[in-house]
């Protein structure tokens, strides 16, 4: 019987292999996915929480490659916008063709501030092609009413990865913090180490401030569409 204390998970090895392609230090990589130094190098197995954190931060990594070592490390990046099917009024429709378009993750960004654990596994369940959203890196759900009427409960949002330094104040962003996911207008805070998170529906929701240090990942919200697929 194998001694688990001497076992390095193949998934850990693949995560470290991916990290080596990023051109950043291990310290910065560990900080990005929110694990302590050496967590991925210990001679133990790997928890679902660590896998979930990694996938949430790097959705471009193929889950099949990560879990089984099969196929390419990264998901294919196929635009396919020219062949986007359209309805009778010329409105672009969603494609359910796997391997085409940009990945759709059945994960909620909260249009409110209810907590949602970021250990929730983010595995793409489909791909989406919509003309005019070619800049999107991925799609996710919106839950809640704080961004209404511009973005409604049940919509899906097109996201493009960026950094805190890229933030244009007054625009809408989807932000993964250490304990919550949320979508809000971001504005400058009086405290240079914080950002203001402002809802559109100010009748029912208040603004909050969070330290920049709590931000794990941030996305520009390119737009939203009603979910009808």
Describe this structure in words.
Helix content is 15%, strand content 28%. It has four helices and nine strands. It is globular.
Task: Record keyword descriptors for this entry.
single chain; 229 residues; alpha+beta; 9-stranded mixed β-sheet
How is the topology of this model organized?
Blueprint: H1 10-19, H2 26-33, H3 48-57, H4 63-68, E1 102-111, E2 124-128, E3 138-144, E4 155-162, E5 172-177, E6 181-188, E7 194-198, E8 208-211, E9 215-226
Parallel strand pairs: 1-3
Antiparallel strand pairs: 1-2, 3-4, 4-9, 5-6, 5-9, 6-7, 7-8
Q: DSSP helix count?
A: 4
The separation of the N and C termini measures 48 Å
Task: Strand order, main sheet: write it out.
Answer: 2-1-3-4-9-5-6-7-8
Helix coverage percent of residues?
A: 10-25%
State the total count of DSSP E strands. 9
Largest β sheet strand count, sense and barrel closure: 9 strands, mixed
What is the radius of gyration?
A: 19 Å
On the 0 to 100 scale, the average pLDDT is 77
**Unreliable residue stretches:** 1-6, 78-99, 116-121
Molecular shape? globular
Secondary structure category: alpha+beta
| Estimated share of beta-strand residues | 25-35%
Oligomer: single chain
Order of helices and strands: HHHHEEEEEEEEE
Concise description?
With 229 residues, the chain is an alpha+beta fold. It has helices at 10-19, 26-33, 48-57, 63-68; strands at 102-111, 124-128, 138-144, 155-162, 172-177, 181-188, 194-198, 208-211, 215-226.
């Amino acid at each position: 019987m194998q001694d688990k204390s001497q076992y390095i998970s193949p998934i850990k090895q693949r995560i470290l292999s991916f990290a080596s392609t990023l051109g950043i230090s291990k310290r910065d990589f560990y900080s990005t996915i929110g694990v302590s130094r050496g967590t991925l190098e210990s001679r133990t197995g790997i928890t679902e929480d660590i896998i979930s954190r990694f996938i949430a931060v790097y959705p471009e990594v193929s889950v099949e490659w990560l879990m089984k070592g099969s196929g390419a490390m990264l998901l294919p990046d196929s635009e396919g916008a020219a062949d986007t099917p359209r309805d009778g009024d010329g409105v672009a429709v969603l494609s359910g063709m796997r391997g085409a378009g940009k990945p759709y993750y059945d994960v909620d960004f909260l249009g409110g501030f209810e907590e949602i654990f970021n250990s929730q596994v983010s595995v793409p369940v489909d791909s989406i092609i919509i003309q005019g959203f070619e800049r999107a890196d991925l799609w996710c759900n919106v839950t809640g009413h704080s961004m209404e009427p511009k973005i409604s409960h049940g919509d899906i949002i097109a996201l493009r990865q960026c950094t805190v330094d890229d933030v244009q104040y007054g625009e809408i962003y989807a932000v993964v913090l250490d304990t919550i996911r949320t979508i809000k207008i971001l504005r400058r805070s009086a405290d240079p180490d914080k950002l203001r998170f402002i809802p559109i529906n100010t009748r029912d929701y208040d603004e909050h401030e969070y330290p920049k240090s709590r931000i794990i990942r941030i996305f520009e919200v390119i737009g939203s569409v009603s979910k009808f697929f």
